[in-house]
């Protein structure tokens, strides 16, 4: 039998955590032959609720689940961990500016980065889900100087999957028939869902849909999908966010079979996006690593949007520079 891998979930008693833990324990993320140990991290007021989550996990009798650790101490939660899903974050309070939210979250992601640095596996793969996800990932990365900076990523896979769903609906084809979807930039309203390189059943997507729909309907629908879910459900997306987190780590660990997926990763100068931000790019994954898809032609329309979302990330970076 394979050696169990350790998976830490922060905010594990929250909505997304509750949707995540059971699917990971059932093998959806790391494979149906990979035993796991779940290390669930919460804050003290949520420890009772977390105990309930752990009790339910036990009651599922998952064959792959070898142990459950519950803790409010990041040094314990990240001990020897192989995968860290940083979901727990402070929500925006009434009247709170984005700047204040960034600072409040910096107080969480700085210490968590340090705890990862001091206690996690040297190959730990980190996915930040808690918002503002890209900049939280940057803060965690900056506080973990002994770990590979490339292993700090943020989630735009939910946006990617939302874009697939919209294009599938429009073209009447199943989303598995779509290749080449891209989300560029920040996981925020400035993200740029780009179909310029997409194909549907082998046909170029820009030739299948009219530009008016693409610019005035598709792009804002994907950008605002989170708000639409809150309006409809009375709560923010949780199961779909958890599912996207599973897709992100599964592809990173097991490979994407040549398919492009969107991951927010440390910028390396690709497509003119200068270093220093965690920016969503199209990537392929193989052998436990990711690679940014290179050589795509970028037209003026795309460039403008890619720059806009980059500028937002640079502003966010500026707002937390004392935490980096
Ligand atoms: P939630 O409020 O239901 O759960 C958050 C949990 O985190 C709570 O149980 C809270 O006690 C815990 N927590 C807070 N600070 C913590 C800390 N320092 N250490 C450990 N745990 C801590 O929220 P939900 O719905 O689960 O969402 C979590 C985050 O994910 C939010 O920031 C949300 O904006 C973000 N999100 C990101 C998406 C993306 O695509 N990147 C999509 C959907 C949500």
Describe this structure in words.
- The active site is at 187 (proton acceptor).
- Substrate binds at residues 92, 98, 131, 162.
- Keywords: NAD, Oxidoreductase, Tricarboxylic acid cycle.
- It comes from Natronospira elongata.
- It holds the Pfam family Ldh_1_C.
- It is a single chain.
- The protein is of the alpha/beta class and 324 residues long.
- It is built from 11 helices and 14 strands.
- A 6-stranded parallel beta sheet has the order 3-2-1-4-5-6.
- Helix 1 (15-25) packs across helix 10 (239-254) and helix 6 runs antiparallel to helix 8.
- The longest helix has 22 residues, at 98-119.
- The protein is globular.
- The termini are far apart.
- The relative contact order is 0.13.
- The model has no long low-confidence stretch (mean pLDDT 96).
- The protein binds 1,4-dihydronicotinamide adenine dinucleotide.
- 1,4-dihydronicotinamide adenine dinucleotide is lined by residues 10-11, 13-17, 41-43, 46, 87-89, 91, 108, 129-131, 133, 155, 158, 187, 236-238, 241.
